[in-house]
Automatic annotation (TrEMBL):
One of its GO terms (molecular function) is 5-oxoprolinase (ATP-hydrolyzing) activity. Coiled coil: none annotated. One of its GO terms (biological process) is carbohydrate metabolic process. This is 5-oxoprolinase subunit A. Its EC number is 3.5.2.9. It comes from Cerasibacillus terrae. It catalyses: 5-oxo-L-proline + ATP + 2 H2O = L-glutamate + ADP + phosphate + H(+). It is an enzyme of class 3 (hydrolase). It comes from the Bacteria. The lineage of its organism: Bacteria, Bacillati, Bacillota, Bacilli, Bacillales. SUPFAM superfamilies: Glycoside hydrolase/deacetylase.
Amino acid sequence: MYKIDLNCDLGESFGPYQLVNQEEILKYVTSANVACGFHSGDPSVIRETVQLALKHGVKIGAHPGLPDLVGFGRREMKISPQEAYDMVVYQIGALQGVLSTFNEKLQHVKPHGALYNMAAKDKALAEAIAKAIYDISPSLILFGLSESELTKAGEKVGLPTAHEVFADRTYQADGSLTSRLQKDALITDTNLSINQVIKMVKESKALSQQNTEVNLRAHTVCLHGDGAHAIMFARKIKETLEQKNIAVSSVQNWKDLI
């Protein structure tokens, strides 16, 4: 039977600014990537997000990003591998501190935004991030772009590594995500998004913008919670996957991650 984890970036509010209805979307996902304060989130938001995730039985991961609140962590910054290592360690530590007050453990780590995309292509950054995660705990699962430098680094260092695919993003022929600066970066048609996910799960392929098939592995699917119809989409994709005999389950329950 096919299986997939559904993850969503959460805890990305800040102070009085609320980005998404977390209570509702947590009903449909199995893993939550919680912002740790650099690109978004604050101590109270982190605690509230953790409480909601635990209430709905959703596994929790750290979502470390670049220190860029204004740019929401989506603008590239020139950083060294050592700086990447330090940023990731620091942000994981923040979330682990909150989790310890609930006697809960971290499931995974997924870099955010520009840091994620930079590490997908930059071997040195990818290896620094993977090492940071491994040094904290070799049992933490690394979420990275499927078949990227980041997933290669995770596997190389010995981390359980989940190859991530995207429901609402288009792909380039080299397997990278289409830049958000391009108008065709996002898939807004719900049926097209769901069909893309089913193809990635069942065939391990995605159709690129160049009309070529990209080979990939699909362990976890990212659902962006800040879209106009995010909750409706999360509900529909979970229902459709189950109708197609694709089990929706947290990767923590899997025994076959590399």
